[in-house]
Design goal:
single chain, 221 residues, 12 helices, binds 5-(aminomethyl)-2-methylpyrimidin-4-amine, Aminopyrimidine aminohydrolase
Length: 221
């Protein structure tokens, strides 16, 4: 399966995500709440664009199975993961005003730009490959840490989201679509799909770093 080839190519990168201080401390419950707060603010920006990317992909494709699934996933995300973020905002006392004033960090900005680049200059298959690590890596995190209970209720709630049957099904859906598109892709397009998938995997790793260190622009913004 092409998805297995991609997973293997990303193995080292994904392992670095599992081992990252942000994830390890989140699971142990020792992660500074300020780092999680920062992550949530940046992730809300990311998820809003990630959701829009599904709509753009639906508009770009002529394949009905891709179109309908992206629209369904977009709806599920708006009502699920994005709605959960609103609950977390309340939990941590983050106001809309604070969110509006938040400066988008370089890595969050660049990750979103990679998605849009694929949607504009790439193909449907390379765009889907760019979206996939967002599902698959997080689902693996949920599964990997399902036996551990973080002493921090909020962190545990976050982990549970990605181990839920709904998230597992959405991940499976995107993996199946990727394999379906890879079957009819040329060798050149398959290489571009792999590159797109690996770039997203790099940005997933950068996202933990960004949140852990409170990344800022070099001369401010
Ligand atoms: C950056 C990022 N990547 C993935 C996910 C999981 N949808 C997320 N919430 N944020």
């Amino acid at each position: 399966m092409f998805s297995e080839e991609l997973r293997e190519a990303a193995a080292e990168l994904w392992q670095a995500s599992f081992d990252h201080g942000f994830i390890q401390e989140l699971v142990a419950g020792t992660l500074e709440e300020g780092a999680f707060r920062y992550y949530l603010l940046q992730d809300c920006y990311y998820l809003t664009h990630f959701s829009d990317a599904h709509g753009l992909l639906a508009a770009k494709t002529t394949d009905e199975s891709v179109r309908s699934s992206q629209l369904a996933l977009k709806k599920g995300m708006d009502e699920g993961e994005i709605a959960i973020r609103e609950r977390y905002f309340k939990w941590l006392g983050i106001t809309q005003e604070e969110y509006q004033k938040t400066v988008v960090a370089p890595s969050a900005y660049q990750y979103v730009n990679h998605l849009y680049r694929q949607l504009t200059t790439g193909t449907v298959a390379t765009s889907l490959a760019a979206l996939l690590p967002c599902y698959w890596l997080y689902h693996e995190i949920g599964v990997r840490f399902r036996e551990v209970t973080s002493p921090n209720r909020l962190y545990q709630d976050w982990i549970n989201t990605y181990d839920s049957p709904a998230f597992a099904e959405n991940t499976r859906r995107q993996i199946d679509l990727l394999n379906h598109l890879a079957e009819v892709a040329s060798e050149e397009e398959r290489l571009a799909m792999k590159e797109s998938f690996l770039i997203s995997s790099q940005y997933e790793l950068a996202f933990w770093d960004m949140s852990y260190t409170g990344e800022t622009w070099q001369f401010g913004r």
